[in-house]
Amino acid sequence: MGRLRAAGVLTGFLGLTLPLMPVQALLLRLAPAAARRLPHWYHRRVCQIMGIRLEVEGAVEADCPTLLVSNHTSWLDIPVLSAVAPVSFVAKKEVGGWPFVSSLARLQRTVFVDRQRRTAVGETAGEITSRLAQGDAIILFAEGTSTDGNRVLPFKTSLFAAAKPSGEAANPDERVVVQTVSIVYARLHGVPLGRADRPLVSWYGDMEMQKHAWELLKAGPLDVIVKIGPPAPLADFADRKQLAERTERAVREDLVRTLRAWPSDAPLTVAAPPRPSSKSIAPRAPTGKWR
C-alpha cells in the first residue's frame, strides 16, 4: 500500500506541476503580481495531494514587506510555508544547481546566497532590499541547515547580513517588519510523532534526498503545526546580531511549546545551545511586540 500511495502522490504532483511551470515562467515576465500569488495556490494543492494538514497559529502580515525567520526541518518546509502565504525563500547557492529543484526555486523567485564569497553578501542585500521594497514576504532559514525537528540550532548571524546590513547600507525601509515562524511535524496518520519518530519527516545530515522523499510519500498523511509570531519593525533591531538573538529565542520557545503541547502563555525558560565564541552585545530595548 505504501508504494501505491507514493506512486499516486508522485503522479498527482507531476500532473499538477509540469503544466504550471511554463505558466509561472510567463507570469514572471508579464504579470509579476500574479507570479507572486500562483505559487501560494499551487503549494496548497501540493499539500492536499500529499495529505499534509496545516494547523496555523498567527498570520503573515499582508499589507507590508515582511522578513520571516524560520527553523528548518525538511524539504517539506518549502511547500508547507508556501501554502501558508505567498512567500519567496533565501537559499544557499548550491540549491541553484540541483536538477528540477533549481527550476522550481527560480520560478518561485528564490534569492540565492553564496556563503563562500563575502562580497556576495552586498549583492544579495541589494536583491533582498529590492524585493522587500516591492512588498514581498521573504523566508530566511536562519540555522543555515536543516535539523532533526527536535531542536533549534543557534542562528547564524552572518545569514542576517543581507537583510540587516551594517555601515552606510543600514537604512532599512521603515515599512519592513520581521516575523518568526516555527514548524513542527506533529502527527502521522493522526498519531503523535515522538522524538525518535520525527526523523522520518526531517531531512538533515547526510540523508539522500530521493530515498528520504520516497519513504516519506509512502508513510501517509501528516499534520503540521506552524506558529507565526507577531510583527516587529526591522528598524527596531540595533544590528544583525540582535536580530539573530531575538528571533532565535522566539522560534525556540514556540517550537518547545508546540512539542510539549504547552499553551502560548505558559511560563517557559529554554536554554539555548552554546554558541561559537563571539563578543556579546548589549541589545537595545525593542519597541515591537517581541518577547
Write a concise synopsis of the structure shown.
With 291 residues, the protein is an alpha/beta fold.
The residue-averaged pLDDT reads 85
Radius of gyration: 19 Å
* Overall shape: globular
Helix content: 25-40%
Query: What is the CATH architecture term?
Result: 3-Layer(aba) Sandwich
Number of separate domains: 1
Count of discrete alpha- or pi-helical segments spanning 4 or more residues: 7
Return the string of H and E elements.
HHEEHEHEHEEEHEEH
What does this entry look like structurally?
The protein has helices at 2-30, 32-50, 77-84, 101-107, 119-133, 209-219, 240-260; strands at 52-57, 66-70, 88-92, 111-113, 137-141, 177-188, 191-192, 222-228, 232-233. Helix 1 runs antiparallel to helix 2 (32-50) and helix 1 (2-30) packs across helix 6. It has a single domain (2-260), classed as 3-Layer(aba) Sandwich (Glycerol-3-phosphate (1)-acyltransferase). The longest helix has 29 residues, at 2-30. The protein is globular, with a radius of gyration of 19 Å. Strands 1, 2, 3, 4, 5, 6, 7, 8 and 9 form a nine-stranded mixed β-sheet that branches. It has seven helices and nine strands; from the N terminus they run ααββαβαβαβββαββα. The protein is an alpha/beta fold and 291 residues long. The N and C termini lie far apart (46 Å).
